[in-house]
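Lecture 7 notes: from sequence to structure.

We start with a single chain of 328 residues. Read the sequence below before looking at the structure.
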Amino acid sequence: MSDSPPRAQQSIETLLEQIGRVVVGQTPLVEGLLIALFAGGHALVEGVPGLAKTTAVRTLAQVLGLGFGRIQFTPDLLPADLVGTPIFVPDTHDFVVRKGPIFAPVLLADEINRAPAKVQSALLEAMEERQVTIGDQTFGLPEPFFVMATQNPVELEGTYPLPEAQIDRFLVKLVVPYPDEADEREIVVRDSQPNPERVAPLDPDTVASVRQTASKVHVATSLIDYAVRLARATRDPASVGARIHALGAPAPDASVALGASPRGSMFLVRAARVRALLDGRDYATPHDIKRVAPDVLRHRIVLTYEAEADGIRPDAVVDAILAAVETP
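Now the structure, written as tokens:
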């Protein structure tokens, strides 16, 4: 069952209000999580410790009335610690599958880049196909199933870069900055209060309802073409005349080694639909695509070594592309 855009917006506003009782500020983070959740995707969040990343996703699960699971990724973690493993039961002389913490509607993969690739790859099937294979058995995951993975941009010793196949499955990558002075003061004030704020859970069907409403948001053919052009431009920015600057000088044309896959085009449209719904509209605009483009595209751009050495960042490539590609 789906709601009308105004009713869906009201549900979202109630959700934001409840989360705001616990999480101070961090509006881009919270909205980014909602866009990923309601678009049927997952979120990769990057930020230094102490910026309410864990608090935000835990509160989101509480407000939505969904189960919450957390996995602390460490170098000694094994795939079985994540998905589960068959356990032999002597009484029945048979194996019984003990499911792992991945079987939670909202899963926090904390510091995902601290585990080796074989553990990270255990999430591939779960994130894409919403199922997990343990031994010779396949188990479906809860619906909804939402993964928020975090990684620390500092203390890179002992970390393992995420494989491209893993990164591409995240609908958005959110970069969390420090709060401003007013928000930080409010955080300190709330911390000194004896009784912390409590949230009121919404209808458990809210996610399914908003998702269906978002899928019906109208996206014109010209906007689909625009999203495709943006994604294709990430593979060869020079083809659209994008001017990328590094250290005050134009960067070489060959600054991108790998751009967004067709999944990037699809996710741009999905995210734009939810972005429109956040504003109470049943149609998407070019501005919606531009607003979600940095979060959807930044982690799909792999720079050349020379570009990285020149100080270029993926966000600079996205900005140059948005400026170069004609807006419909």
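The mean pLDDT is 85. Keep this in mind for problem set 3.
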